[in-house]
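User: Hi! I'm working on a homework problem where we have to compare a predicted structure to a textbook description. Could you give me the structure for the chain below?
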Amino acid sequence: MKGYASAPANDNCATATPASQNGCNLGGLPNSFSPSAPPSNFNSTLCVGGTWFSNENTVFYSFTPTATSATLEIDNITCNNGESGQAQFGVWRTCAAMNLAPTAANGFLGCAVGTSPLSLVGLTIGQTYFIAVDGQAGDICAWNFSTSGIVLLDLELLDFNAIDWSTVKDYSIESFTVERSTDAITFQTVTTSSITVNSGSISNYSTQDLNPLPNVSYYRLKHMDTNGLESYSTVKTVSRENFELKGKLFIHNIYPQPFSSILNIDFESGDAEKLSIKIVNNLGQLVFQKTSLAQASQFNRITLDLESLDAGFYTVILEDKITKTSAVERVVKR
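Assistant: Happy to help. Predicted structure tokens:
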């Protein structure tokens, strides 16, 4: 069944997976979702499209609205019993609200059964909301999320100055802006990226903060659509407290993993202006070596063309010959 091979480990609302184009509830834990006395509180008058039955294998997703009103539905539902449409989902403001009686005052926004669209109103742009999805009567299902007024967006900070994010269904988004703040209130632009393609497929983006703050930084992602409307991701906190670079060399990120030809290395050095880059194979043999310039106490990126290397495991060594400091990482070439 489609989607099962890449089922996310999202059987806990606290670690809900950001909603993307595809979803499934393979691996959802029994009784992982316990709203007040189901199914009596989730009857046909409460859920659009039918009655919410029992909860055997619920999974959790999250989303960020780009408008105060939105719609959400799950389409192309395929279940293990061969039937279609056997799934149910609901939306809440918080994970804690799921264990309360399903009322607006308790943070419940609504539920739906099958492919019926759920209208969501009174949303706060940029706030994270949570979706619980369950197959009826224990069904294991796969589906597609279909939305309006919602960007299916995931912002992940791989390190304090290496920022990657991905989108699914870019719709009419025109650009992304990474913003940074010292107090999580007033933000300044770090960098702006134009949209790559509005294809409905997964798009990956990457940027870096070349001059990160010395202590705590707060980051968020702003996305602007073609009509000039702006919305924001949740705020991510990154700490550099007690981070001393003098006499040290750090590899912050080395990617992609595994790589096929191009390998990127993001690093910082407290002293080096010239570094030696070595790559050795599993036999300890030196298979690649070069020298690169580096800016001391700043973010640096080295891009290596390693297409000539055979597939296998390798060790990457960055070395500052003056201070005798080094940093080592293992990589895989496919």
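For your comparison, note the following. The domain at 4-148 is CATH 2.60.120 (Jelly Rolls). Residues 1-6, 35-39, 153-162 have pLDDT under 50 and may be disordered. Good luck with the assignment!
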